[in-house]
């Protein structure tokens, strides 16, 4: 996997992925940015959520669960002093579908957390406490 990050002025950067996609990152005004785009640490948090959500949906589909929606609400706590790393991330999954089985949803989240989500596993290995909870909303 490769990426390229180019400084484009002030506190703004262009990130280009090896797959050919691009994103702009910017900092807050107090750090010289213009607050026009996502911050790098926010991007990291989104990456963890995206990785986990991908896993959970994939696992639920493979287990023939009629999942129609999966959202993760993340709340990260950062250290107060430099480096301001993540110290804790709470992940709340809201899974919607037809006749979803609690045991299947719980297992999908556990598998993502323990085996498949490289981003979360890497951060956990670095000492970040990551918690998971979920709710299931049945559709008629």
TrEMBL record:
It comes from the Bacteria. SUPFAM superfamilies: OsmC-like (SSF82784). It holds the Pfam family OsmC. Gene3D superfamilies: 2.20.25.10, 3.30.300.20. InterPro entries: KH_dom-like_a/b, OsmC/Ohr_fam, OsmC/Ohrsf. This is OsmC-like protein.
């Amino acid at each position: 996997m490769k990426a390229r990050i180019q400084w484009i002025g002030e506190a703004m950067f262009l990130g280009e992925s090896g797959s050919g996609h691009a994103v702009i990152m910017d900092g807050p005004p107090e750090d010289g940015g213009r607050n026009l785009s996502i911050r790098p640490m926010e991007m990291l948090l989104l990456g963890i959520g995206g990785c986990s959500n991908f896993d959970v949906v994939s696992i639920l589909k493979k287990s023939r669960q009629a999942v129609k929606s999966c959202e993760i609400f993340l709340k990260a706590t950062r250290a107060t002093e430099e480096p301001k790393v993540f110290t804790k991330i709470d992940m709340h999954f809201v899974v919607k579908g037809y006749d979803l089985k609690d045991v299947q949803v719980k297992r999908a989240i556990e598998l993502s957390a323990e085996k498949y989500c490289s981003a979360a596993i890497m951060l956990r290995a670095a000492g970040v406490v990551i918690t998971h909870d979920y709710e299931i909303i049945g559709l008629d």
